[in-house]
Structure formats: structure tokens, C-alpha cells
Design a protein that fits this description.
230 residues; alpha/beta; two-stranded parallel ribbon; 9 strands
Length: 230
């Protein structure tokens, strides 16, 4: 009489428990893959970063200088704080204007309005300039040990461990509500150039304002983490 109860409560037969254990094991395995513990992406190299940019028909612009009394980069431990960068194209031109809704762009010719897509491209240029500043700073202020030669050499963008956070300011018409989509230009570019694990999945804020220095349409600042042993 006790055996049927024993079977019903699993005392002598554990098919459900076995299935749960199998599912748990499968979930653990997939989590291991997601967090990279068993499946590491190949390390970044400067050549790989430049190749990714070239595939997008992009390249790093020449590094610029500060426009006022501040530093472009401040290092605190393994964190690099980058000041706001402007949408400067490779030929040195600034992208100016105000992002506005489509109906405003079509009906108002009083000033230079920019669409969300144009703002996106401007934010992309901000990100390229941020990377250019990082490359310039790393190559002149940071060295890394070459494991093959045992000699220290200038660091480069491949030593960026993680883009931690972006903060973007978008010059906006009062009715413009797509600052977050404009900032995707910077976020997407960093993920494409540095790879998802390093450049994407960062924290981010995006706000609108009625004016920005020099008439620019967007400004982006960044916090990046480099390898702690540099």
C-alpha cells in the first residue's frame, strides 16, 4: 500500500526532479556562454578596429584640441573621463543646426533644422572624435608590455576594456522628442568599432537643450575603462 504513494511523491522514482536538474544544467550552460565564462571573444587589435571602421567606410579623424580651459582626457586609476566632443567631420567642418520634427523641418525655413537621421550621423562623428582622442592619449601617455619582446610599447585602442558610459546633449526644437535616437549614432558606432563586449551595452543618458557651443547639434562625453595593469 505504501509503494503507490512512494511513486506519487517521487520517493523511489524522480523523473520530474531529473528533468528539472537537466533544465537547470542547461540554463547554467547558456548563462556561462552569455557571460563569456566559457566562450571568450577574440581579443581586440588596432588592425581589427581599423578594419571594422573601414568596412563602414569610416576612419578616425585627426585628434583635436580643447576649445576652452579644460582637458580632453582625465585619468583616474583605470578610468578615462573624456570631455564633451563635437561633431567634427574628417575635413574639419562642424555639423551645426538644431534637431527638429519632420513637420517643423518642412514648414519652417527660419534656421537650419536637422532630422533625426542627420543628428544620428552627427553623433556618430562625435564618437569617432572620442575614439581619436582616446587613441592619441593612449599612444602618448600609456604603455603596454609586448609579451613577445618583453619591451613596453605605446598603448592603443585595443587596450580599452570597456566603454562605461556616454552622456549626450542634443540641440533640439521644443517639440523634438528623439534625442535618444540621435544618441544611437554614437552608441552604435562604438559597438561596431570596438565590438559588442567592449563598445556596446554601456550606460547612457541623452538630454535636449536649446543651445550648444559654436552652434553644434550634438555633444557627447564618455567614460572608458582600460586594463588595470597599464
Amino acid at each position: 500500500k505504501n509503494h503507490p504513494n512512494a511513486l506519487r511523491d517521487g520517493g523511489h522514482n524522480h523523473p520530474i526532479t531529473s528533468k528539472r536538474a537537466e533544465a537547470s544544467s542547461s540554463a547554467d550552460d547558456s548563462h556561462s556562454l552569455r557571460d563569456g565564462s566559457h566562450n571568450h571573444p577574440p581579443p581586440n587589435t588596432m588592425n581589427a578596429i581599423q578594419s571594422r571602421l573601414a568596412a563602414l567606410d569610416l576612419e578616425l579623424p585627426p585628434p583635436g584640441g580643447p576649445k576652452a580651459n579644460y582637458q580632453l582626457v582625465h585619468r583616474d586609476g583605470d578610468l578615462l573621463y573624456l570631455s564633451g566632443h563635437l561633431p567634427v567631420t574628417n575635413d574639419g567642418n562642424l555639423i551645426v543646426g538644431t534637431c527638429a520634427p519632420a513637420d517643423v523641418i518642412e514648414s519652417d525655413n527660419s534656421q537650419k533644422w536637422l532630422s533625426t537621421d542627420e543628428g544620428y550621423k552627427a553623433a556618430q562623428h562625435c564618437a569617432l572624435n572620442l575614439l581619436s582622442t582616446l587613441q592619441s592619449y593612449l599612444s602618448t601617455h600609456v604603455t603596454t608590455l609586448n609579451s613577445a619582446t618583453g619591451v613596453r610599447q605605446p598603448a592603443d585602442l585595443s587596450q580599452i576594456a570597456k566603454i562605461v558610459k556616454l552622456f549626450g546633449i542634443v540641440r533640439s526644437h521644443d517639440q523634438f522628442m528623439e534625442q535618444h535616437l540621435v544618441m544611437n549614432g554614437a552608441s552604435d558606432l562604438l559597438g561596431q568599432a570596438l565590438g559588442k563586449d567592449v563598445g556596446a551595452c554601456h550606460a547612457r543618458s541623452a538630454i535636449g537643450t536649446n543651445s550648444l557651443p559654436l552652434g553644434i547639434c550634438v555633444e557627447v562625453e564618455m567614460i572608458a575603462r582600460i586594463s588595470p595593469d597599464l
